[in-house]
Design goal:
The chain is an alpha+beta fold. It has helices spanning 4-13, 29-35, 81-91, 116-124, 133-141, 145-174, 181-195, 262-288, 294-307, and strands spanning 18-23, 46-51, 57-61, 74-78, 97-100, 128-131, 197-198, 204-207, 231-240, 248-255, 321-322, 348-352, 355-357, 362-364, 367-371, 376-378, 387-388.
């Protein structure tokens, strides 16, 4: 059940007349999650309007009339499109400036879930549709104390699994036994299961040239074996297998040898400086009470890599929001793929994961940062150098 009073307080604080939730065929998971809806039918359009004050109102199709019955508010029904167009102004009565899951020019596609036609329809009724991006952060991205503790608990397990995975890869190389990327991935999945960690997608183990693919997925039958003299990148994420738990997401890089080559050490140092520049930017500004935005954090990391001459090899955003889903609905640390101008708000978490990638190899270093009221911190272990796995 949504906290209507809390939503209305935020609407008034943001000088908005209301928040209109709308869905069709489950296109808006944000609406479903905030409103506490299940996975029932949504073959017809439904609308739920929370005004800044007063009772919420809902509009549903007659053949799915019970779609929103678990929510408070007066219900209206429609069948035909003409009836729908007449009912919408009544639903939104008293509302002029209305928030929806809309992003101007689709600058933040994670929020831009309402179709253009619906926005046009409401504008034709004299409504001003604005983005719900900050409201979504408040009700989707912020963590409770219990969720933060679940993050720490998952992190302790995942940090250990990562180090054990490096050791396992090294043991197989020493003994000249084959262990593919896929084999190592599945071993980590088994460890997760044993320690009560769950994940929507399995972790990544990428050897040699595959480490240069930021979203590489090892497949059975085609995965590379772990070989002496190659880099091994592990991108690992998971959460406790308990309701409400939130993710922990890290990337570490190791070398299947005893002495890390100079070329790899050089690139890692650049990536590390970029990572630490973003961390310092967040920590310093949060302590000063200065508002910061996702694109600014991205810039703090990206400028380090650009000035080192590797700008074109850093091909993705610096970080993403983390929540009950691995990619959460808060601000992303992004000034490249999008210009995320959302403010980084208290009680949210995100990754910082700069990387440099080529056709030969890639290096990324990823940590998670949690922002409190006046403090920010990295929540787990921080890699200081490439691990020489066979040392």
């Amino acid at each position: 059940m949504p906290d209507i009073e809390a939503i209305q307080a935020e609407l008034r604080a943001n000088k908005l007349d209301g928040w209109l939730f709308y869905d069709h065929h489950h296109r808006d998971p944000i609406a479903a999650h905030i409103l506490g809806l299940g996975n029932g039918m949504a073959t017809r359009r439904w609308f739920y309007f929370v005004p800044a004050s007063g009772e919420p109102r809902k509009l549903v199709h007659r053949i799915e009339a019970g779609q929103l019955d678990n929510l408070p508010g007066k219900k209206a029904e429609y069948s035909g499109w003409e009836e729908l167009h007449k009912a919408l102004p009544r639903l939104l009565k008293g509302g002029k400036k209305i928030a929806m899951q809309y992003s101007p020019q689709n600058d933040i596609p994670y929020i831009g879930l309402v179709d253009a036609g619906t926005v046009e329809l409401l504008r034709g009724m004299g409504k001003k549709v604005v983005s719900s991006k900050d409201l979504v952060q408040k009700f989707e991205a912020t963590w409770s104390d219990e969720q933060l503790e679940s993050h720490f608990a998952a992190g302790k397990i995942i940090d250990r699994v990562v180090q054990d995975a490096f050791a396992r890869a090294g043991a197989f190389v020493r003994e000249k036994k084959e262990l593919t990327e896929y084999d190592l991935q599945q071993w980590m999945v088994d460890q997760f299961r044993a320690y009560g960690i769950t994940t929507d997608d399995p972790p990544v183990a990428a050897v040699g040239p595959n480490s240069g693919n930021p979203h590489y997925e090892p497949k059975q039958g085609t995965a590379n074996p772990n070989r002496a003299g190659e880099l091994l990148l592990l991108d690992v994420w998971g959460k406790l297998a308990k309701p409400g738990s939130v993710y922990y997401d890290i990337t570490w890089t190791g070398y299947l040898g005893s002495t890390v080559p100079r070329e790899y050490r050089k690139i890692f140092e650049i990536v590390k400086r970029a990572r630490d520049s973003a961390i310092r930017f967040v920590v310093d500004n949060v302590e000063r009470g200065r508002a910061i935005h996702g694109w600014e954090v991205d810039r703090a990391a990206r400028e380090v890599i650009r000035k080192a001459g590797y700008g074109k090899y850093f091909t993705h955003r610096t970080g993403h929001s983390i929540g009950q889903d691995i990619h959460g609905n808060g601000a992303n640390m992004d000034g490249l793929e999008t210009r995320d101008d959302r403010q980084v708000v208290p009680h949210t978490c995100f990754s910082v994961e700069p990387g440099i990638y080529s056709s030969k190899f890639g290096i990324r270093s990823e940590v998670n940062m949690y922002v409190g009221e006046r403090e920010a911190r990295v929540t787990g272990a921080v890699q200081s150098e490439i691990i020489a796995i066979l040392a």
